[in-house]
Amino acid sequence: MNSKTAIIIRREYLERVSKKSFIITTILMPVFMLALMALPALIAMFSESESRQILVIDKTGVIAPKLENTKTLTFSATDLTVDSARKVETADAVLVIPANTLSGEATMQMFSSGPSSMEVESEITNQVDNIVEQYKLKEYNIADLDNIIKSIHSDVKIQSLRNDEESSESSTMLSYMLGLGLTFFLYMALLLYGQMVMTSIIEEKNNRVLEIVVSSVRPTQLMLGKIVGIGLVAVTQIVIWGALLASMSAFVMPALIPADVTADIAALNAGTTSAESLSTDIEIVQALSVLGNVAYIIELFALLLAFLIGGFLFYAAIFAAIGSAVDNIQDASQLQSVVVIPIILGIILATTSISDPSSQLAVWSSFIPFTSPMVMMARIPFGIPAWEIAVSLVVLYASFLGAVWVAAKIYRVGIFMYGKKPSVKDLVHWINYK
Amino acid sequence: MDILTVNNVSKNYSGHKALDNVSLSVPQGKIYGLLGPNGAGKTTLIRIINHITAPDSGSVIFDGHPLTQDDVANIGYLPEERGLYKKMKVGDQAVFFARLKGLSKAEATKQLKTWFERLEISSWWNRRVEELSKGMAQKVQFIVTVLHEPKLLIFDEPFSGFDPINANLLRDEIIRLKNNGATVIFSTHNMSSVEEICDNITLINKGRNILTGNVEDLRREFTRGRYSLVFSGNPDELTSALAPMLETWSVEPATYDRQQLNLLLKPDASLRQLISVANEKTELAAVNEAMASMNDIFIEAVKSSDAQ
Q: N or C: which end of chain A has fewer CB within 10 A?
């Protein structure tokens, strides 16, 4: 049986990998992702020049002089009435500060030509709040107030260290980001490659090439060959992406990190430093230090592949059964909910697991094969016991065998069914056919 | 010797009996017609013979042993509904299918080149299937079916989609394969091609085998009561006078001003009666015993089985 399945796998794989579209997406995807990440910075760079002029009518007489200009806002106090101020053409907005503002409970008004933005509003309220607080503090007539305020200012951070593991370093912020990123990547990959299996089966069924193939191989062999072939395409694509990203982080990232930060990372890794001696934010240093840790990245990548392959095989089997049962994509949409709903549930559970990676819900949903790939990928960056990962993988791969067994039974009946749109009940019925 | 024996095979699909206790034997080296109206169960039977689906009960003996998955290497099946991978090149695709049948890549390529030359399609080797016409694609499918020199070939409507020239070409190839020792199961609705190339037939209706036999024997057997009268006169007058004696009839023009009445006598009517009535109404020129066509046999057998 194996040689025939191998011939099928070979065809499925080569057909896709040699396509121009595959080569283009594989190379352009990382470039596109980087561009997407760089985009906000680029936009900010080019949109800086625009500064808004704000006329301030200050009935308190205290606040206006203390408003500080920012990159985007320029304040200028005026004695004009509200109505005439609104007619000044050079002003983008008129801010009216009522007399009772110093009580701290007032509502200011802003007349803006064009829509005002959240950013502008929060900048103004923040500044005014600060000024009012300072003003009120001054009213207590405390000596040496400015120094007192400086000395009581607090900016506490946390450096998390693990006492149950060898590598003591861990960055919650990074784990959070990684967990989220990996989960979403897995979600996209499962849906994308799973649907590829389904559409390819529908296509085969539609143009009746299937009738010819099954006269030489068992339907199950064809189905397995297709799943494995497309799985290998997925692995190829992801390994290429991984290699591209790894080479970028190895060669490009060090060049981008300032020298003092690099020194901090080295100091942190050597264990010769504590948080207070660092010149940079501890979270960033930790994050960069973890990302520069090649062994950790490889381990994460290997686990990602393990869960991706397991999840793909499991879901692809179900997608294959659905594809075999219908004549066209439109008919598939209803049956597809059987797969899409658990995948979406997986991503929801994964995002809640990120907030509390060791909750009961997170642990259990990382064992159930429908949700385990996504939830596990969300939890792994936080560092969880190895046995949990092992159990999850074993359950996932065992479930794949079960799913294939059921899918094959549906498939070998479904591929010869034309016309009627089957229901889930029909599929269950087919499982019992001889 | 029989290369294939089907014993009491039944198959149900959700309460619908696709096959009901069907038995048949296909002798080695012959062309065997598998006939029946649409939905009679032919395709289901062919799929069982191909080991694609399993029967609910009954057995299939191939070449002296119960049919197994390994036997598909010795069977070539050209389905009625057939297609190819559209984006693949013709040559690559043919090699792919040949390898699925167990040929090595080199062997497959070598044999395919010979076949492509014989059917004059060598120039298609590097073209994509989507560029081919339907008839062209069917030539490729035919080659893929017969390439591995199977002992048993199953053709389901092989001529559909072919122009008469290519249909003849294909028919000659099928007869050549038979002469080289292959056995052919041939499923079609085209009864004149059955007369032309089949040695034996089985007729299936509503999942049951209603007629099996040698084509010549069957035609002779069904000839009983079948005559053609050549006459000059009013055909309506003649047929209305004869109607009580006839099962079926048709009138066609013959030579000069004469016409021909093809008829099947009712079992209780006699030829003598027929001639005397016909003589009164018209001027008879000739009375012949008519050989039943496969078309006649098909219609008569299906009708009488439906009536039961």
A: C
Residue A82 lies in domain: 52-145
Task: Inspect the interface and report whether the beta carbons of B85 and A209 lie closer than 8 Å.
Answer: yes
Tokens of B245: 């004696």
Q: A410 in contact with B at a CB cutoff of 8 Å?
A: no
Regarding whether A278 and A243 lie in a shared domain, the answer is yes
| Long-range contacts, stretch B128-133, CB < 8 angstroms, 24+ apart | B128/B86, B128/B87, B128/B88, B128/B89, B128/B90, B129/B84, B129/B85, B129/B86, B129/B87, B129/B88, B129/B89, B129/B90, B129/B93, B130/B86, B130/B87, B132/B90
Q: Which of B12, B33, B154, B140 has its CA nearest to residue A216? A: B154
Cβ pair A208:B83 closer than 8 A: yes
Tell me whether residue A282 is in a domain.
yes
In a domain, A349, yes or no: yes
**The two structure tokens encoding residue A169:** 């370093």
Tell me how far apart the alpha carbons of residues B171 and B177 are, in angstroms, rounded to a whole number.
10
Fold category of B224-307 in CATH: Alpha-Beta Plaits (3.30.70)
Which architecture characterizes domain B2-213 according to CATH?
Answer: 3-Layer(aba) Sandwich (3.40)
Strand order in the sheet with A109-112: A73-77, A52-58, A93-97, A109-112
Distance from the Cα of B24 to chain A's closest Cα (Å) equals: 21
ipTM: 0.79
- Residues in B touching A216 (Cβ below 8 Å): 72, 97, 100-101
- Which chain B residue has its CA at the smallest distance from A206's CA? B83
Given an 8 Å threshold on Cβ–Cβ distance, is B84 in contact with A7? Answer: no
Q: How far apart are the first and last CA of chain B?
A: 34
Residue with tokens 């595959």: A22
Q: Å from B55 to nearest chain A CA?
A: 8
What are the tens digits of pLDDT across the range A285-338? 766 776 667 777 788 888 999 999 999 999 999 999 999 999 888 888 888 888
Q: How far is CA B256 from CA B126, B230, B285, in A?
A: 58, 11, 12
The minimal CB distance from A209 to the residues B47, B84, B99 is found for B84
Whole-angstrom CA distances from B276 to B18, B228, B289 are 48, 15, 16
Contact B82 A213 (CB under 8 A): no
Helix (H, G, I), strand (E, B) or coil at B161: coil
Residue B121 CB contacts under 8 Å (≥ 6 apart), including other chains: B136, B139, B140
Tens of pLDDT, residues B265-286? 888 888 888 888 888 888 888 8
B83: helix, strand or coil:
coil
Tokens of B118: 């014989």
Contact B293, B191 (CB under 8 A): yes
Low-confidence ranges of chain B (pLDDT < 70): none
What's the structural domain count of chain A?
2
Return the number of other C-beta atoms located less than 10 Å from residue A386's C-beta. 7
Distance of residue B172 Cα from the nearest chain A Cα, in angstroms: 23
Helix (H) / strand (E) containing B2: strand B2-13
